[in-house]
Write a structure and sequence with these properties.
Layout: H1 4-7, H2 10-18, H3 20-32, E1 51-55, E2 58-61, E3 66-69, H4 84-96, H5 105-117, E4 123-127, H6 130-145, E5 149-153, H7 182-186, E6 188-191, H8 196-204, E7 208-213, H9 218-221, E8 223-224, H10 229-240, E9 243-247, H11 259-264, E10 270-274, E11 284-288, H12 290-293, H13 298-304, H14 319-333, H15 337-358, E12 364-366, E13 371-375, H16 395-399, H17 405-415, E14 418-419, E15 425-427, H18 434-453
Parallel strand pairs: 3-14, 5-6, 5-7, 7-9, 9-10
Antiparallel strand pairs: 1-2, 2-3, 4-11, 10-11, 12-13, 13-15
Helix pairs in contact: 2-17, 4-14, 5-14, 8-10, 15-18, 17-18
This protein binds 4'-deoxy-4'-aminopyridoxal-5'-phosphate.
Length: about 450
């Protein structure tokens, strides 16, 4: 049955008119991919845009429409698209070969750069993605502590491996999601974000190998970590003999050159990385205390008489990804990159809140660093952009949206030349300049007008 919210919508009609090339590709894609897409976050009704090329803070779709980009390669592109220094490093590496089936100099330099920047990184192991990195981190934690269970926080995202699925977007009771074994789900103890008693009770069982979290909070701060919570976790895990694992897949090299651990001053035992660490190419890593990495070491295992954890991965430390990652990290370490993106974040949040106030809307733009979230107030609470405190709300409310709001806002922003992500919100790069800010804010005001004329707000 056709969705009347889509068929009767002037926003959807205008979007279809603007993006015929994307619509044609999305129809073709339906034959090859479930829902026509290759990543769940690209699910958009009636269809998402198909991008042809990108540069700096901008990207163009197959119909040559230009967008200011806040998807930012899912957070990977703090330097913006095609940074010339990264592009040159990639081309030079590519010209020398894409896979040697052997160790190479760039992986050594890349790891040295990570160790210089990330406070916890005594040792590093590269993976091909963040999902692999978090999988390895929990395996290391279990093997190191010889304990069975991991604490995760409801709604926090750590990739799609089996340990990370229940309780992220559903199954908040911890039961197994489709295709995940009950035994695997039972090895994860879910606790509400910022729930100190929940953590303490779980640690008191003596079964907890480690606690993993997005350090700035679920979805890069959509449900922020409460002040003092990281310090609490550091002390509580240490006292209980469990490992603290920061999932810095998004926050690493973004909130500060040394990530959330530098920003907060709390050093975890292990940290997981992807995205920025590989400069916009596929890649990830686990980093942390040297002693924990002995579990991956042939010689240490033999000498110590313990079982080594096996770890392969065809594309671990791939030379092209290593070149991109090393170039990106050096630029970030040189300074100015994170600060610039963070300052733009402050201005963007303030400008969005000005627009919400002018529109008389009880929504709020919030977030920290270079991430922005728009709270669309699904329960119709009496809040406003000026005094919005996300920690004062039940955490699930921050994940929900007013009916139709996120989807229609996304389409209305695309119509106005801005690609916000579906939270709604986005991540910012150091390639975002003042003129992009002004254009984004004008687009947001126009988008709100469209939403109002369609009765969404
Ligand atoms: N952890 C966090 C915090 C993430 O945001 C993501 C990806 N969005 C992942 C892990 C998984 O990384 P990947 O997509 O590279 O597997």
């Amino acid at each position: 049955m056709p969705d009347t919210a889509l068929t009767n919508s002037p926003i959807v009609a205008a979007y279809r008119q603007k993006t015929p090339g994307s619509e044609a590709l999305s129809r073709r894609a339906q034959a090859s991919f479930p829902s026509g897409i290759t990543h769940d976050s690209r699910h958009l009704e009636p269809y998402g845009v198909y991008i042809d090329r990108a540069e700096g803070a901008l990207k163009w779709d197959v119909d040559d429409n230009r967008y200011i980009d806040y998807f930012g390669g899912h957070g990977a592109l703090i330097l913006g698209h095609n940074h010339p220094v990264v592009a040159e490093a990639v081309q030079a590496a590519y010209a020398k070969g894409t896979h040697f089936g052997a160790s190479h100099a760039l992986e050594v330099e890349w790891a040295e750069q990570v160790r210089k920047m990330a406070p916890c990184a005594e040792k590093v192991r590269f993976t091909s993605s963040g999902t692999e990195a978090t999988l390895m981190a929990v395996r290391l934690a279990r093997a190191y502590t010889k304990r069975p269970k991991i604490i995760r926080f409801r709604t926090h995202f750590h990739g799609w491996n089996d340990h990370m699925a229940p309780g992220q977007a559903n199954h908040y009771d911890g039961t197994a999601t489709a295709g995940v074994l009950d035994g695997v789900a039972a090895g994860v103890t879910l606790v509400d974000p910022n729930d100190r008693e929940g953590v303490e009770a779980a640690l008191a069982t003596g079964e907890i190998a480690g606690v993993i979290l997005e350090p700035t909070g679920s979805s890069t701060g959509m449900i922020p970590s409460a002040p003092g919570f990281l310090e609490f976790l550091r002390e509580a895990t240490q006292a209980a003999g469990a490992l603290l694992i920061f999932d810095e897949v998004v926050t690493g090299f973004r909130v500060a050159p040394g990530g959330a651990q530098e920003d907060s001053g709390v050093t975890p035992d292990l940290a997981t990385y992807a995205k920025i660490i590989a400069g916009g190419l596929p890649g990830g890593a686990v980093a942390g205390k040297a002693e924990i990495f002995d579990l991956l070491d042939f010689e240490k295992a033999r000498a110590g008489g313990f079982e080594k954890i096996g770890h392969q991965g065809t594309y671990n430390a791939n030379p092209v990804a290593a070149a991109a990652g090393l170039a990106a990290l050096r630029l970030i370490a040189a300074g100015g990159v994170c600060d610039k993106a963070n300052a733009y974040g402050d201005s963007l949040r303030a400008g969005l809140n000005d627009a919400l106030r002018d529109a008389g809307l009880k929504w709020a733009a919030y977030g920290e660093h270079s991430a922005v979230h728009i709270f669309t107030n699904p329960e119709g609470r009496d809040i406003g952009p000026d005094d919005f405190d996300p920690l004062a709300l039940p955490f699930m409310e921050l994940k929900n949206n007013a009916p139709g709001a996120a989807q229609k806002l996304r389409l209305a922003m695309l119509l106005n030349g801005v690609d916000f992500n579906g939270w709604p919100g986005g991540t910012i790069s150091a390639a975002h300049e003042d003129e992009h800010l002004a254009e984004t804010l004008t687009a947001f005001r126009s988008a709100l007008d469209l939403l109002r004329s369609e009765g969404v707000i």
